[in-house]
Amino acid sequence: MKKWISTLALAAMSLQGFAQNEVTLDASQAKTQINRQIYGHFAEHLGACIYGGLYVGENNTKIPNINGARKDVIEALKKMKIPNLRWPGGCFADTYHWKDGIGPKKQRPSIVNAWWGGVTEDNSFGTHDFLNLCKELGTEPYLAGNVGSGTVKELSDWVQYVNHNGVSPMANLRKENGQDKAWGVKFWGVGNEAWGCGGNMKAEYYANIYRQYATFMTDWDNGSKLFRIASGANSKDYNWTEVLMRDIPHHMLEGIALHHYSVINWDKKGPAANFTEEHYFKTMQQALFMDELIQKHTAIMDKYDPKKKVALVVDEWGGWYEVEQGTNPGFLYQQNTMRDAVLAGATLNIFHKHSERVRMANLAQIVNVLQAVVLTKEEKMILTPTYHVMEMYNVHQDATNIPVEIKSNDYVFGTEKLPAVSVSASKDQAGVVHISLTNIDINKGQEISINLKGITAKAVTGRVLTSAKVQDHNTFDNPEKVKPTTFTGASISGGTLKVKLPATSVVVLELK
Ligand code: AHR
User: Fold this and answer.
1) Where does the UniProt annotation place the signal sequence (predicted)?
2) Does the N-terminal or the C-terminal CB of the chain have fewer CB atoms within 10 Å?
3) What's the mean per-residue pLDDT of the chain?
4) What are the residues facing 233 on neighbouring strands?
């Protein structure tokens, strides 16, 4: 009898592990495009992001490069599909004087990178290097202007230097430096974190400064109207968004930024790889908080801009942990595990859900810094779990978002809980439907029943990213420990899709 009871209990427990999550996709309501720009990245002069990571110099004979930019990294990023790249910061942007980074390299001044490790910045990677790298990557540049320690003239000159095709002082200088044709850069940040490292300004003061800077940022004649992005709120500083939306005339403003990092505690961030379940749960709380943040910032923006003309640009997001032991604390070098993979998947699902207002975003940062997609060590390069998620999800770029209703099981930790499952879906230009799912529960798999309203599909294929432990990651000795594999846990019958997600997993499905 006792044995029979315990067998029953075990069966109930495993059923509980696969209790049904209910999802409805309604293709008849699909109308908003998922702007590919939400798949953007961020490269700052910080640690080994630029020097060593993206750029090794044109005289490097050990690491194959195109005009100094690493070939291996370029190839990997192209495959991942990177729509835009933000540069040169971050905090560094408000110390950066772009004229230091043009002209013959030997004549460029060296400065101290005061924000990040106090290292010497020799300015060998400058405007031409960055914009030519973007061309190589097939990505749109997003330049962050210096408002904190720069001048209106300096930023206005930078716009003229990169965007003016006629005869003008800056266009002439650009030509002298070997670039005849203007690059035509559309995306411009007007300062960064103006409330902090960008000048410790009050919202009202920054709104005035923004108006002044934006006035002198000329569209020029290259057919591409500037997309000016105001330095936005620090996470839940809703007042910042309120003041900017109220005080900046909307014809001078194309986007407002928002920065939110999934950090447990700024004084005690916890390790990047050897973390506990408590660390993990708290990171996920912060990551899923992005949904509430976007809803609340959007509600404020809607009040002033009901037609959603101004975009919300989440131009810094990602996980932020303690640096790896023995590395420079100012370099923000951290490992990247399955925790980061599910964080990325869940965040992208949130961005898709809010695609009407969130039309651009930038993961921080692209190589060797924070939640990087690529890590390098001299001539070696590895792809992180986050890379694989960004690559798997790229099928959603510019596709039409399909609204999702979801009833999820809970991922329970102690007395707290979070929804275990997140889902988003889209229909691409060829009519193909893709569905992305994440299970953040590290202990239980999830069975999901998906009602496919308005979608006729007979077959389903997919890929999954998962690993035995949430701490699993790739290393230079074992670069393929975490990589996508074919997913066989989905079946379709009579308008219903059944999916069995393993614990800690990210899945992307294609319906045929
Ligand atoms: O991404 C690292 C830093 O985080 C950026 O320089 C700054 O904008 C933010 O505080």
Assistant:
1) 1-19
2) N
3) 95
4) 258
